Amino acid sequence: MQLDANATFVFRAIDAQGRESSGTISAPSAAEVAFRLRREGKTVLEVARDALARGNASDATETTASRSMFTSSRVRRTDAIDLCRQVGVMVETGVGIVEALDAYATEGARPEFKEIVESVRLEVSSGVPLSQAFAKRPHAFPPVVAALTRAAEATGQLGEMLARAAEHLARIEKIRRQVKAAATYPMFMLGTGMLIVSLLVAFVLPRFAKLYEDRGAELPALTKALLWVGRTIGTHGLSILIVVAALVTAFVFWNRSESARHFFDRLRFGFPIIGRLVRAAFVARSMRTLSTLLSSGIHLLDAIAIVRGLDRSPRTERFWSSVDASVREGRLLAESVRREGLLPATVASMIAAGERGGRLPDVLERVATFAEEDLEIAIKQAMSLLEPILVVVLGSVLGGLAIALLLPLFSLSKVVAGNS
Predict the structure, then answer these.
(1) Cα dist from 407 to 96, 196, 197, whole Å
(2) Residue 201, number of CB atoms within 10 A of its CB
């Protein structure tokens, strides 16, 4: 129904970074408000023509922001998965949503997550839609969960949609863990190796050197160099620790800057081995999310806005921003994706086939499954390549230390032979 041109609407929306905002817009209809917000790249949560809702929306946003400061550190990624799975099953069997949330808070929720579930239950019992309660807590429930729940409330399939949300989050979490494990293993090996080498140089090598010097053996240049490193660490250990701590602190602050984001983003996508993993994870995560949202009835522009907020990578944000602008200009998704060049040409071709056949969500799901399989293969290949490299590097370093310890034995044997 069209309203007068001076009508004022209150809105709540989520931007590409997952931040919730609220305000007022003068427009002839709620549909026009939603269109304007989508054009700005935002995901619409609520549009209302109630002046009283403005204060409520602002208060809710402020309360959520202050509460998230204390609860975000205690929320796990698996909490939302567990809630969607258990509450979805209960709703499908006929249990009311308020009763299901109460039962989950009593029996299933972790103590750290229980407070959030109870606050959601209180809001839902007072008449607030479940999707709105989820959207107020982006630190606990990703925007995709709020979007799926909002679609379920419109179709009356809440239980099924919560189960779909749980399955989707579980797949995304699996991808995240695979990439994290692939990155953690070499870092752990290198860190352990550096710790062992430091202990040997600082504590073990000086004891052998004193033994050799007491017997008049001439120390080789390699042993002298390592001894100098060990003595420096022993003498100026506190100063070195202070310098290292200062460098780490500076790195932490720099890591939060925009230049650091762009630097590591280029490194992630440009490194030969890691680049393939990052690209495969990006395709799997984004295509899986798009498929889930579109198959649930979410508007394509809203789905793109949610996908754009999945990753903090500047390159992927630019990619989805360009795709969003291109789709708004009337181009097809496949054409928009192909113009940007971040996705493989095969993916763009499959998306085009899905659009022509009217089965885009199914095709995107197939693309995501293929990308997940490619990611697993890439991780196995990366591990099979990195393991021998790490063994060679650490073996060479430890072998050099062993040589530094054994070389003076030849000089010591000459001294003993001369004395005899």
Answers:
(1) 78, 21, 18
(2) 21
